[in-house]
Amino acid sequence: MSELPDGVDRRAVAGEERLTTEGEPVYGEPTADGRRVWDAGRSKLGAMLELGMDTRLDGGESVLYLGAASGTTVSHVADFSGPTYAVEFAPRPVRDLVDVAEVRPNLFPLLADARKPREYAGVVEADLDCIVQDVATRGQADVANRNAQFLGEDGLLLAAIKARSENVVADPDAVFEDVRETLSGRYEVLETRRLEPYHDDHLGIVARKR
Amino acid sequence: MSELPDGVDRRAVAGEERLTTEGEPVYGEPTADGRRVWDAGRSKLGAMLELGMDTRLDGGESVLYLGAASGTTVSHVADFSGPTYAVEFAPRPVRDLVDVAEVRPNLFPLLADARKPREYAGVVEADLDCIVQDVATRGQADVANRNAQFLGEDGLLLAAIKARSENVVADPDAVFEDVRETLSGRYEVLETRRLEPYHDDHLGIVARKR
Amino acid sequence: MTETDDAWFAGVDPGDPEAAAAAIADGEADEPRDWPALAVESGFAADEDEYYDRLHDATVAAAREAARAAERADDKQLVHALRAMDDTERTANELAERLEEWAGALLDVETGATGLDFAAVVAEREPADATEERAVSLARRVVDLREERDDLRTFIERRAPAVAPNLAEMAGPVLAARLVSLAGGLESLAKMPSGTVQVLGAEDALFAHLRGHAPSPKHGVIFTHEFVSGTRPDDRGSAARALAGKLSIAARIDHYSGDFRESVHDDLRDRMETIRARAEEDQTEE
Amino acid sequence: MTETDDAWFAGVDPGDPEAAAAAIADGEADEPRDWPALAVESGFAADEDEYYDRLHDATVAAAREAARAAERADDKQLVHALRAMDDTERTANELAERLEEWAGALLDVETGATGLDFAAVVAEREPADATEERAVSLARRVVDLREERDDLRTFIERRAPAVAPNLAEMAGPVLAARLVSLAGGLESLAKMPSGTVQVLGAEDALFAHLRGHAPSPKHGVIFTHEFVSGTRPDDRGSAARALAGKLSIAARIDHYSGDFRESVHDDLRDRMETIRARAEEDQTEE
């Protein structure tokens, strides 16, 4: 199994080995020894780690998180990372995201459209170490490509691709192949893995900026 | 080629051999030598004769015509037959049928439903020689069976079956097979033939009451 | 029961063709018999030739009357269809108006189209979120209602000439159906004085007049006929009166005979040309 | 143009958090830069830690305000959806009424169902001719409109708690949307005296009262709330007044803070129980 980033540990919680990070509880998640459980069933990145994908994260990275929703996953990311920019487009979840960010000085919430990087290029710094992406809109590969400008040399992309967002009726494998093809212009794909049983018809991707 | 009934002749009209009968013109059909052309393209029974099916008609038969519509075909039938009962269900064409019948003392128009012989069993006489049927409703074989009561011994059925009336999407051959099967209880089928090129997806049937 | 109890000629006086026709229209029998022989036997006819003659007369009369009655019943369907057409058109427009308020800003629709046409544009949009989904779905309902209205109009255009051939020829199928609807049926329309036909659809104005509040209305829905609307205002009263008279005649022919009579249409065309010519003459003089 | 021209902190006074939030909300830039270093260089922050602190405060404030503004705009969508729901329901019923007149006799429908339910029965029929086709097709449009109404109601039920969580909790989502609609928006509702909220939807009765023709109305649409309708007639005036007061408070919290406040709901529940208990007591005494 690949190494976890510093700041992410497995702990026995209620008899099970669970991923944990240290920080203010956010969504009623179980805690143990002052650490809170990172539920892979509610987080694509959590599932990628749980399934042993090599994220190449050491901890302490600067991160752009696209599709932060109400902040469940990004709260864990911010727990073990450096400056963390969280972009979310829907107003309602941003209200929760703001609560999550308020108690995390390194987490910067942005109500913006991940398909329009101009909207936040004046706020998000250049040369970031990593983009984490979990946007459930059509054109997910395109979103990753447009945001590659924020990554430094060899910057990482950790993306979860939802097949149904691209095409409700198509075969997920065909969708994933298409996504991979679109990504290959800006990224070198290092590893892919379906996120079952945590998330159906999702593909986890680890890629490096070319 | 089979013999035509007495009263139906082939005549050269505008250079072509055409079926003709003698009677008052009805629908603007061409006439020659006081005889009027029986257009096989507008008449299923005309097409059966034109295609050489052996109708076993000699002329002078007593006839029950089911599905007389505005009277195009039944006017020719009455021209060479004995008492001719014409049943039609739709009010609008019956207005034209009445005009056709008015000048033919042996033609008796009836506004009635061919699926309900009780409605006209008190008018139409028993022991008829022939039923001609051209009803474009579902259950065409059933209509023929219900009306068999009007035929005398060895009475004839001359029917045109429209495949699309039974089942719009099914293969016509399958429909025709099914019709033949349903008929076989009351009739012995003597001859069948598709009515192309005069009428697409229609089957002409000559049968004898069992 | 004797053998001839359910024959069409049972109990019918050979000299009463109406009774014979009614027996044919309404009779029922369990099975066919040798009716010609039985008729002669029972004394209804002297021989089979006479029987067939009587049968011929009776069936022709019965079929003609039955066809006419069935078509007369069709005037009710025509009226239902017309009212449904009006209702679908009205509701489509009301929903389109609501949609304009909603979708104009929401979907940033740039089109000169309004009303039903606006709805047709919106219905083609790909909704981007749940709100747009509802607006686009509403637009599709509007388009559906417009199609329903068009289908009903087509139905009326096909059916009116069958129900009332002369009225439909003279008034156009939709106005013909509207007159039948306002009168409450073809029979009522046929029995109306032409002065009433003239103001059908202007009941409010007529009642105001009868209460002494207003002048007598010159025309009701027949105003939509080009014979009235295309005539200069001064002549509209007399044009409306003339048209109403012709329409009454047409309705009566349709109800009582059902035949198409070319002559009444020629009359109206002549009359129309006279009025037009006079109007043009006057204009030339001015 | 210097390197920091399109930075969020360009021209922003570090001591002015509102300006900072506005710059984040409205700014645009061609490409990202090393903003922390540039901010220190330009003197916006003493060091990168201070920069991140300021960035944190500004992004949190900007995101909170932007989310709230976007949701406030949602009250307009809620109002549009509510009015569309009312329109689809009304038009569906009107067309169903027309259909009942038509299809009842035509299709020989034997069902105790009326209105929209009758239309649902007819919509399932297999039409036998062109007339029946039109009637069945009309029935299907009615069923479509009913589905549209149901979808709009579902939309409102999902959306009202997001737009006005306290009002939706207290009034139920549809009544909450109706109050917002009658007031012309959540902001207007929040700014209304509770006496006006009490009679929203009873404008006709209110104007009659103001012209001296009628007593002052005791309640408008809030009558549909069980707190009023479930209260015995004598107490309805005071129940309506109490409910309107609470609804006003709920609307104000929703507009100005947007948080859910359990306490105001407890208050109403207590109040309701008191009124109910008193009513029961009185009944027992009788």
Structure commentary:
The complex is a heterotetramer, with 2 copies of chain A (210 residues) and 2 copies of chain C (286 residues). In chain A, 25% of the residues lie in helices and 30% in strands. In chain A, the strands form 2 sheets. A 7-stranded mixed sheet of chain A has the order 7-6-5-8-9-11-10, with helices on both faces. With 210 residues, chain A is an alpha/beta fold. Chain A is globular, with a radius of gyration of 16 Å. Chain A has a single domain, classed as 3-Layer(aba) Sandwich (Rossmann fold). Chain C is an all-alpha fold and 286 residues long. Helices cover 73% and strands 0% of the residues of chain C. The model of chain C has no long low-confidence stretch (mean pLDDT 88). Chains in contact: A-D, B-C, C-D.
Q: Decide which structural class fits the backbone of chain A.
A: alpha/beta
Q: Specify Rg of chain C, calculated over alpha carbons.
A: 28 Å
Structure annotation, total helices of chain A:
6
* β-strand amount of chain A: 25-35%
Oligomeric composition of the shown chains: heterotetramer
The helical percent of chain C reads over 70%
Largest sheet of chain A: 7 strands, mixed
Low-confidence stretches of chain C: none
CATH topology name of chain A, in short, is: Rossmann fold
**Overall pLDDT metric of chain A:** 92
Order of helices and strands of chain C: HHHHHHHHHHHHH
Mean pLDDT of chain C: 88
Please report the two chains with the greatest interface, counting residues with C-beta closer than 8 angstroms to the partner's C-beta: A-D, 28 and 34 residues
Principal-axis shape of chain C equals flat
Structural class of chain C: mainly alpha
Q: What is the CATH superfamily label of chain A?
A: Vaccinia Virus protein VP39
Written as H for each helix and E for each strand, in order along the chain, the element string of chain A is EEEEHEHEHEEHEHHEE
- Mind telling me which CATH architecture of chain A this is? 3-Layer(aba) Sandwich
